[in-house]
Amino acid sequence: MDDTGYFLSFDDYDLAYVVMLIINSESVQEFLKTIAFLDAKHLFTKKVIQRIDFRKNIAYLTIEDLVQTEMNLD
Fold first, then answer.
1. Residue 49's Cα: distance from chain center in Å?
2. Whole-angstrom Cα distance, residue 62 to residue 42?
3. Sorting pLDDT into bands at 50, 70 and 90, what band is 2?
4. If you write DSSP's letter for every residue of 8-50 in order, what string do you get?
5. What spatial distance separates the first Cα and last Cα of the chain, rounded to whole Å?
6. Are 22 and 57 spatial neighbours (Cβ–Cβ below 8 Å)?
7. Is 72 helix (H, G, I), strand (E, B) or coil?
8. Sign of the C-alpha dihedral, residues 24, 57, 65, 12?
9. Stretch 58-68: mean pLDDT, rounded?
10. How far apart are CA 49 and CA 4, in angstroms?
11. From CA 58, how far away is CA 55, in angstroms rounded?
């Protein structure tokens, strides 16, 4: 790992798991691809990551979306 690693810390495993599913959901991944410089050395910078609005994503994503994300991640 180099100096571009970012950590999200949680006291609760279940919350951490749901956030992982949200970050890996198709809609968030598509959003990140639209705001990141895809040819950059470090694709997802701190500035890009900070633009994820978890409240909006929680309101937008369904349980089915999260289940599908989990299945896609295997």
1. 8
2. 30
3. low
4. ---S-HHHHHHHHHHHHSHHHHHHHHHHS-TTSSSSS-HHHHT
5. 24
6. yes
7. helix
8. positive
9. 95
10. 12
11. 5
Distances (CA, A) of 42 to 3, 34, 46, 56, 67: 10, 15, 10, 25, 29
Q: Which residue has the tokens 């929680």?
A: 58
Query: Model-level pTM?
Result: 0.79
26-35 and 13-24 helices, crossing angle to 10°: 60
The predicted-structure confidence for 3-47, as pLDDT tens digits, reads as follows: 557 778 899 999 999 999 999 999 999 998 888 887 877 777 788
Classify 62 as helix, strand or coil.
coil
Tell me which residue has tokens 């910078």. 45
Burial of 31 (0-12, 13-18, 19+ CB in 10 A): middle
